Sequence to fold (195 residues):
Amino acid sequence: MSKKTNKQGKLIVFSAPSGSGKTTIVRHLLKQEELNLEFSISATSRKKRGNEQHGKDYYYLSLKEFKNKIKADEFLEWEEVYRDNFYGTLKSEVERIWAKGKHVIFDIDVSGGLRIKRKFPEETLAVFVKPPDLNELVRRLKERGEESEDKISMRVAKAPAELATAPLFDVIVVNSNLDHALEHAYQLVSDFVNE
Fold:
């Protein structure tokens, strides 16, 4: 993947601990047509959950396929988030969106977000979404009702390390009031894509 040419769009990264509200914010921004955003669909080696669809929610790859793509240098960034659970951004996905003349928006973990920022420092706006506190994070994860207590505990255990990375991002959006967080995120992205 080459460095930015005039035709290429920008990269907008949203990262946060699970339960911070980043997905809600990203979905809201995608509905704002004037921002000209398209969602970067991540690849994963994990199994589908519920009604998830290949090519819409994720690109589902077998563990072997994922590792082969790593060897072939087909990822912009990737990480083994949990044992044998790989997530990553395919270079072809970003190129596909740029070819449509759109900006790429990501909803990814903090490590992946920071790797994209390092690779494309000028073209990337890296936003960290911060929950008001850890208790609220736990409450939101439980309220979702999507995961076992073990999975929630695993996510909460990762949160302090993820929160510690916040200062490495360009900007922090504190999501204590969703309307304010949506407004703040919209303004940040609008300013960035129009500069």
Remarks:
- The chain has one domain: 11-193.
